[in-house]
Amino acid sequence: LLYTIKFEGEVVYMATGANGANISSSDLQWYFSQVKGNVEEDITDADIISTVQFNHDGEFLATGDKGGRVVIFQKDLGVKGEYSVYSTFQSHEPQFDYLKSLEIEEKINEIQWLKRQNNNLFLLSTNDKTIKLWKVSERRYRMDGFNLYDEYGAQRDVQSINKLRIPRLVPVNELTVEATTKKLYDKAHVYHINSISLNSDDETYLSADDLRINLWHLDSTNECYNVVDIKPANMEELTEVITAAKFHPQHCNYFVYSSSKGTIRLCDMRAQALCDQHAKMFEEQEDSTTKSFFSEIISSISDVKFSSCGRYMVSRDYLTVKLWDLNMDSRPIETYNVHEYLRSKLCSLYENDCIFDKFEVVWGGPSNSILTGSYNNFFRIFDRTNNKDACFEASRESAKPKTQLKHCKVGVGPKRRKDEISVEMLDFNHKILHAHWHPTDNVIAVAATNNLYLFTGK
C-alpha cells in the first residue's frame, strides 16, 4: 500500500505493510534481481561501464562504456526489476585532434534521456568533445518490390525488367531496432565535457567542461551560448574547475554547477546572459582544526543532483554526501558519512590515485532516499526519514535469483566483529562509481566495473 505526505513542499511517498506499519527505504529488504556482463576475470578497458541512466518512466535503462558503446535494456513485462537487451549501438569512435596532437577517447561520459513523445526513443550521449542526439526506433516493416534489385538485394539484369513495379512495405516476423544519429553537437568545448543536463522546457540543455558551461538548443547544432566562463586571463591563476552542472527540474532559468573547491553555485539566467555572477553560493566552512594536505582534494564535489521537487540538492564529495536546502546556503541541512573509515588511508589512496575517483550520487525515487557508491563494490543507501543507512555489496557470490542482500560492515583497528570486514582487506580496484534509481519503483541499477547489477526492494 502507498500513501503520500507533504513535507516542506516536497511530496514523499511512504509504503505501508499489511498491519499499517510504515516501511522506509532502510526497512526495505533488498534482493538480487539480475546481473549483466561477462564473468571473465580478464576485463578489457573498453567493457568498463562509465554511465547508467533510467528513462523517465523506468521502462528503459541505458548504459555507456569506455568503448563508446551504448546498451539499452527494456523492462520485462510482469517481472519487477528484470530487463532484457533492447538495442546496442556504437555511439562514439576514437578520434585524433591533429591541431593539438591529442587523442579523443570514445568513452561515454554521460547519457541523458529525452522525454518520450511517441513510440521512438531519443537520448543524448557525450564523450570528451562531442555530444550526439540519437533516435532509437522499432522497425516492423521492410521495403519490397524494387525494380533494380531482387528480394535478396542483388542487382537485377536490366534486360529482364519488362514491367514497372511500385515498392511497398511488407511486414517482417522479427522486430528490428535501429539507432540513428539525428544531431551532432561538437567543436564547442576546448576542455573535456564532464556533464550534460536537459532543461525542463525539453528544448535546451547544458554541457559543462572544466572551465565553461554552454547552453544548447536541441534543434541547433551550429551555435551555442556560453553561460559560464571561469577561465582566468592567466592560467597560472586558475584555482578551481567545474565538476558538474545540472538544470533545475521545474524552473528553466535556474541551474547549478559544482567546483573542485567544494562549492555549489546557483545561477539565474534571467539576471544576465553570462552567469559569471551567481545568485547563491552553497559552501560549508571547513574546520581549521581538521585541515590537512588532502582537505582540498577530498572536498572536491564530484556530483550534484536536484530533488524531484527542486527544493533540495544532494552533493557528493570523496568522503561524504551532503543535502542542501536552496533557502539556506550557509551549510548543508544533512551530512552522511559514506566511508569515514578511509580517512586514515588518505595517504595511500593519494599514492594510488584513488583519491581522485569521481563517485555519483542519486535520489531514491521520491527523494526520501539517497544512493551512492564506495570501494570493494560496496554501495550505500541513506534513508532521510529515520537517519538510517545500509551498506550492501554488488557481488556475483550473491548473484542468485531473489537472494536477500546482507548488510556489510567495515571494522577499523585490530579488534573487529565476526560480521565485519577489515579496512585493510578492501579492494580499491573494485568500486561503484555509477548507479541509478528507478524513478517510480524500488529498483536500483549499479555498475561494478564491466557488470550491471539490478536489485529490488520489498
Q: How many H/I helical runs?
A: 2
pLDDT averaged over residues: 88
Which structural category do the helix and sheet elements fall into? Answer: mainly beta
Proportion of strand residues = 35-45%
**In which range does the helix fraction lie?**
under 10%
Largest sheet: 4 strands, antiparallel
- Overall, the morphology is globular
Number of strands: 35
What does this structure look like?
There is one protein chain. The protein has two helices and 35 strands. It is globular and about 90 Å long. About 0% of the residues lie in helices and about 45% in strands. It has helices spanning about 295-300, 345-350; strands at about 1-5, 10-15, 20-25, 30-35, 50-55, 60-65, 70-75, 85-90, 95, 100-105, 110-115, 120-125, 130-145, 170-185, 195-200, 205-210, 210-215, 225-230, 240-245, 255-260, 265-270, 280, 305, 310-315, 320-325, 335, 360-365, 370-375, 380-385, 390-395, 410, 420, 435, 445-450, 450-455. It has about 450 residues and is an all-beta fold. A four-stranded antiparallel β-sheet has the order 4-35-34-33, with no helix packed on it. A four-stranded antiparallel β-sheet has the order 5-6-7-8, with no helix packed on it.
Give the SSE layout.
Blueprint: E1 2-7, E2 10-16, E3 22-23, E4 30-36, E5 49-54, E6 60-65, E7 69-75, E8 83-90, E9 95-97, E10 102-104, E11 110-113, E12 121-126, E13 131-144, E14 168-185, E15 195-198, E16 204-208, E17 212-217, E18 225-229, E19 242-247, E20 254-259, E21 264-268, E22 280-282, H1 295-298, E23 303-306, E24 312-316, E25 320-325, E26 334-337, H2 346-351, E27 361-364, E28 369-373, E29 378-383, E30 388-393, E31 409-411, E32 420-422, E33 434-437, E34 443-448, E35 451-457
Parallel strand pairs: 31-32
Antiparallel strand pairs: 1-2, 2-3, 4-35, 5-6, 6-7, 7-8, 9-10, 11-12, 12-13, 13-14, 15-16, 16-17, 17-18, 19-20, 20-21, 21-22, 23-24, 24-25, 25-26, 27-28, 28-29, 29-30, 33-34, 34-35
